[in-house]
Amino acid sequence: MAPANKARTKNTAGLPARVPAPRKSKFQADLAPSEDSGLRVLKAELQITSNTDFLSDALALFRWAVAERKRGHRILSESSTGERRILVFPRLERVAPDVALPQVDIRWTEKELESLAEFVSEQPAEPTEALIRAMRS
Amino acid sequence: MAVAIRRLEEPDEVENFDCGDEPLNHYLQLHAWTNQQKISIGVTYVAVDESAPRAVLGYFTLATSSVPRDRLPRKYVRGLPLYDLPLILLARLAVDKRFSGRGLGHALLAEALKITLYVADEVGCRCIVTDAYPDKAGWYARYGFLPLGETSGTGSQKMFLDVRTIRLASISGLTG
Fold first, then answer.
1. Which of B52, B158, B16, B47 is CA-nearest to residue B112?
2. Strand blocks (E) in chain B
3. Which of A91, A122, A127, B92 suits a disulfide with A131, CB 3.0-4.6 Å?
4. Minimal CA–CA distance to A122: which of B7, B123, B146?
5. Are B159 and A119 within 8 A, CB to CB?
6. Do the chains contact at B110 and A126, CB–CB below 8 Å?
7. How far does B113 lie from chain A, in Å, by closest CA?
8. CA nearest B148 in A: which residue?
9. Count of A–B CB contacts within 8 Å?
């Protein structure tokens, strides 16, 4: 084995250095049973056998949708009778240049977010007397 | 005085509203209706006297918002659901100074909290947040609002009230 390796090294001497292959990323997703079931159905319908191919196709579709919304284009479906339905997907609306979401953005500091996360992770506080009175009124 | 609280309507008289704070006056007079009816980013509720049902005595504005999960500190997100955190923003609450001291603020906040609980039950939200003037933080604290972080550079204090606490109060209100 050693001589063969040596010979191969010699043969490649003088050629440009090989570009290392890009690192592959691995995805692991925690899916609820209903989501897992939905995934299997979709794969069967699309005749996709591997999760890698499924993710690759989904990524291509998502990338296209993001690019369209970034241009301000709407994404819609049209039935055979001409009925149109526009896709409104909150995450996609974040990249749309001209659309105001029916909600407001709040500017948070890191400390505020830390407090917020801490509070929502804890058990709820006992209501105060004033709060009980308010809810009773 | 029999007070009713309802959604802001276009014919409501807001020009003479004066809570003593110009930004809050201007919001009601110039932006509240537009934000509610045209661009749908917040709904304003007004307190009116039933004997003069167009004169606004006080108001509050609610909007929805959310915090992206990936903005929350890692040490807490493990215990949280895999979604952005939906919340209600109590954007504004003000009482005309000619009617202060009559419990209108209490009535307005009570209504805002009831709406929050209703929204939480119907579509889901985790908490109500407000940005209180420092001199009003103590008033909100009486209702259980907790300060978030430190006072901001603009002098306001974000405050938080968990929907679960509101629900507990609601149950206590029924049984107490």
1. B47
2. 3-7, 43-49, 52-67, 85-95, 127-132, 146-147, 157-162
3. A127
4. B146
5. no
6. no
7. 8
8. A112
9. 136
Structure pTM?
0.66
Distance between CA A67 and CA A15 in Å, rounded? Answer: 40
Compute the nearest-CA separation of A90 from chain B (Å): 11
Q: Do A132 and B169 touch (CB under 8 A)?
A: yes
Q: Which tokens go with B101?
A: 């001291």
Which of B66, B91, B169 is the closest to A131 by Cβ?
B169
Is B133 assigned a catalytic role? no
- pLDDT of A45-89, one tens digit each? 999 999 999 999 999 999 999 888 777 677 888 888 887 777 766
Amino acid residing at A39: L
Q: Which amino acid is at B167?
A: R
Q: Where are the alpha helices (DSSP H) in B123-162?
A: 137-142
Report the residue of chain B nearest A102, measured CA to CA: B41
SS3 B132: strand
